[in-house]
Design goal:
By secondary structure, this protein is an alpha/beta fold. Helices cover 35% and strands 25% of the residues. It is built from 10 helices and 17 strands.
């Protein structure tokens, strides 16, 4: 039985997704990563990269007519959110060797071994990651949800499958990027899980899913070439709001630059860009959002 990681990639997250893969490769052994490629270009490039621990999938493999029906009416990010519970359920049902299916957003990066995330706890079916907002962001929690859907652990069991079916149906009904009462993308629904199902717990391992929305609670420092948050190893950081402008610069829509974490991450991204350039020189996966430079500060990637 193995612990696997599930990632959804479009061309605009490919650079970060490959960087995520390499961060796991360097910090964990005996894993598989399932990558659901939502466009043909991403699928072809991932094939050409011959990633050792990766199993590639495309949305048609999920074989669900409901996903086909909603695709045209939803933005790319909304469609990716909608795919999430169906993708995870497919992996748990199809692959008997899976013990845990850990969903992770493509903009997460592992600085250390992820196994404490599920080894710290027992007797659970699903582990949710609290946003753990700083106090002045409590209103954001009410709008966007107590839990972050960018990192969720599903143990192989019937309850997990029931939860994924319930969550999938909610996402088919509505999965928009606007904030509505009780709704925000695929994420706000997660608040209902502890009340509807047994075996839903919160991740207790320290140093997990640190992000711009909670990093002010922590003091970052290094010890023996490892990054620590307060007195615990930083396991993974969620680079939410980071947008690559080109190979040498990036923008932050949330938070501020922290050289201790952003420098190794963006240098690793440059390495991923170079790998992709070798197999697909014409590929352009940079963000071209309108007025990006007017919305946030641009940072140079420095070694």
């Amino acid at each position: 039985m193995q612990n696997v990681f599930c990632v959804i990639l479009s061309k605009y997250r490919l650079y970060q997704g490959i960087t995520l893969y390499h961060s796991l490769y360097h910090n964990y052994t005996n894993f598989k990563m399932f990558i659901l490629c939502v466009d043909d270009e991403t699928y072809q490039i991932c094939q050409e990269l011959h990633l050792e621990h990766v199993i590639l999938l495309q949305p048609q493999a999920l074989n669900d007519e409901r996903l086909i029906a909603v695709q045209q009416s939803r933005k790319l990010n909304e469609y990716c959110w909608t795919l999430k519970p169906f993708f995870i359920e497919y992996v748990l049902r199809k692959y008997d060797f899976v013990h845990h299916a850990v969903y992770i957003d493509a903009d997460i990066y592992f600085f250390d071994n992820p196994s404490p995330i599920w080894e710290n706890q027992r007797n659970y079916c699903v582990l949710l990651s609290k946003h753990d907002y700083v106090k002045n962001n409590s209103l954001t929690e009410l709008k966007c949800g107590k839990y972050n859907s960018g990192l969720i652990v599903f143990r192989r069991c019937e309850t997990s499958l029931d939860i994924l079916k319930w969550w999938g149906q909610r996402c088919i009904e509505w999965c928009g990027s606007s904030v509505l009462p009780g709704r925000f993308g695929d994420q706000k629904y997660l608040e209902q899980l502890p009340y509807l199902f047994e075996g839903v717990s919160e991740i207790t391992a320290p140093g997990v899913n640190i992000a711009p929305w909670n990093e002010k609670k922590y003091k970052f420092h290094t010890r023996k070439q490892k990054i620590l948050v307060n007195n615990s190893k930083l396991i993974c950081y969620h680079f939410c709001g980071l947008r690559l402008i080109n190979k040498n610069s990036f923008s932050l829509l949330m938070g501020n630059q922290n050289a201790m974490i952003h420098s190794p991450y963006t240098i690793a991204i440059q390495h991923s860009i170079s790998l992709i350039e070798q197999v697909y020189p014409a590929f352009d996966g940079y963000f071209a959002e309108n007025n990006l430079q007017n919305r946030s500060k641009i940072y140079r990637i420095t070694k």
